[in-house]
Design brief:
Layout lengths: L8 H22 L7 H19 L4 H13 L2 H20 L1 H12 L5 H16 L2 H18 L4 H18 L4 H10 L3 H28 L7 H14 L8 H11 L4 H19 L1 H7 L6 H15 L8 H6 L9 H20 L1 H12 L3 H18 L3 H18 L4 H13 L9 H10 L3 H4 L4 H16 L17
Helix pairs in contact: 1-2, 1-18, 2-17, 3-17, 4-13, 4-15, 5-7, 5-11, 6-7, 6-8, 6-10, 7-8, 7-22, 8-10, 9-20, 9-21, 10-21, 10-24, 12-13, 13-15, 17-22, 18-19, 19-20, 19-21, 19-24, 20-21
């Protein structure tokens, strides 16, 4: 039996260097279209390089194949949610739920504090339901529509949505990542949340101040004429009313009641379909093909909204793009990207290439500040390489837990750091499951909105500053000094 050799630093560096080179080339050649095929090829080619290194080191193909399949299965729950979110957006456009949210937002929100208000609103919703994904797919989509009407920048709005959604998700006891981090690090959930407040709240406040300044200095707002024009388009094409928000209320209620995301979103999508049949009869009648009965045409249109989204022609090209989209088919490219990314990450982990980097880092991370900074860098690196925020929490958590204990650092320091580096940075990477999802929902490339997701950028930096200054770093008796009570 051939013995497996330990991976070297050069082994680990080769596939990562190839990936960085190919992804950079992909963005240069294809720009915003890089996530629609080029990035997937880059990930697959880099995975092939990692497989070759694994075979060289003594792994069998069957072992590597099994690792890739296992890595992909990690994402299947997210893929199911992703597909159902596509169905939800389609039926919520047809039902008038999203158009009504846009309409009321245009009437109520002042353009000058819109960015900050968007951030706060998404934070409240995500804190209540524990899901940044659901928040972005519902409130986030509507806020992008409102920003169009107010003459504001959609990319900045996306940054505000991401900032608020991930602030609320990070602090919500209902969030999967908020429960996962302390479970990996060995800390208590509510101790973990309390300890996160010290880095999370100041980061959020700084982000809000920036959004307020940007809002008051934005050019071309308010555009009263454009707001009235968009409002009239919505009223002419949809039945707009407060009752159209019932599907949203149902979804948020189910999430607060801790129903799993997939059935909750599925029920929300079905409510949207029912609401469309009840309240959007005129809209549906105008879209039924000639020669088709009203019953069959209605059934066909609602069914299509679930699998292929909704499309409308209003006479205004920007509004057509805003009010069209969704459907499960619209999420297939994102699914393709997620599968390719997780294949690469799974091979890198199986062959031991990620562990090589951590071992090298620990040799130079002598102080508490450098250890926490290294943990955050590893989380970000795992998000880049393994392309999944769960892996960016679990893998560094397993790798660093013993070192934190040896150095007398309480487990809450590690669990907080895992979120500061892993959870927060995941939506900023286009090929990460979170980044790919946000692009499919918000229709904005993460490379564009990343520079405006101020909370997500500030939080890791503030955590590193705290670490080097020794602010709110809880200590325990180092593991090697602990004595037995026996």
């Amino acid at each position: 039996m051939k013995q497996v050799k330990q991976a070297t630093f050069l082994d680990a560096l080769i596939p990562i260097s190839v990936l960085v080179l190919l992804l950079g080339t992909s963005v240069y050649l294809y720009s915003d279209d890089s996530s629609y095929g080029p990035n997937q090829i880059a990930l697959l080619f880099s995975a092939a390089i990692a497989v070759i290194i694994g075979l060289k080191n003594g792994f069998k193909w069957a072992e590597l194949e099994e690792a890739m399949i296992k890595g992909i299965t990690i994402s299947l729950g997210a893929v199911l949610i992703l597909l159902m979110v596509g169905a939800l957006i389609g039926t919520w456009l047809l039902s008038g739920t999203v158009p009504s949210l846009i309409y009321f937002g245009l009437q109520l929100i002042n353009p000058h504090w819109f960015y900050a208000a968007s951030c706060i609103l998404c934070a409240i919703v995500a804190l209540s339901i524990g899901s940044s994904w659901t928040t972005a797919a519902t409130i986030g989509v509507a806020l992008l529509g409102v920003s169009t009407g107010l003459g504001l920048d959609q990319v900045v709005t996306a940054g505000a949505v991401i900032s608020g959604a991930y602030f609320g998700d990070k602090l919500s006891p209902l969030s999967e990542t908020t429960n996962l981090a302390p479970a990996v690090a060995g800390s208590n959930l509510f101790d973990h949340i309390h300890h996160m407040l010290w880095t999370t709240v100041p980061s959020f406040v700084i982000a809000l101040i920036i959004f307020l300044v940007m809002g008051f200095n934005a050019e071309g707002v308010p555009n009263e004429g454009r707001i009235e024009e968009i409002s009239n388009i919505l009223l002419q094409n949809f039945n707009i009313g407060i009752e159209m928000l019932v599907p949203l209320v149902v979804l948020l209620t189910l999430a607060i009641k801790k129903m799993p995301a997939f059935p909750a979103v599925a029920i929300g999508a079905l409510f949207g379909a029912v609401w469309a049949i009840i309240f959007q009869q005129d809209l549906i009648a105008g879209q039924i093909e000639s020669g088709v009965s009203h019953f069959v045409g209605t059934f066909k249109l609602v069914w299509a909204a679930l699998f292929d989204g909704f499309s409308i022609t209003t006479g205004d090209a920007k509004m057509d793009r805003l009010l069209s989209g969704g459907g499960m088919s619209g999420m297939l490219n994102t699914t393709w990207l997620i599968i390719c990314a997780l294949m690469f990450g799974a091979v890198m982990e199986k062959v031991g290439l990620l562990k090589v980097f951590v071992s090298s880092i620990l040799k130079i991370a002598k102080s508490t500040g450098s250890l926490i900074a290294s943990t955050i860098a590893t989380c970000i690196g795992t998000n880049l390489i393994a392309a999944d925020q769960y892996m960016a929490i679990v893998m560094p958590g397993r790798m660093y837990k013993e070192e934190y204990e040896k150095r007398g650092l309480a487990n809450v320091n590690l669990s907080r750091t895992l979120e500061d580096g892993g959870t927060i940075t995941s939506p900023l990477i286009p090929w990460n499951t979170c980044g790919a999802y946000m692009q499919s929902v918000l229709l904005i490339n993460p490379l564009d909105y990343a520079m405006y997701a101020f909370f997500n950028l500030i939080n890791p930096l503030l955590a590193i500053i705290y670490a080097y200054l020794g602010i709110k770093i809880l200590k325990i008796t180092p593991k090697h000094l602990q004595t037995s009570d026996e």
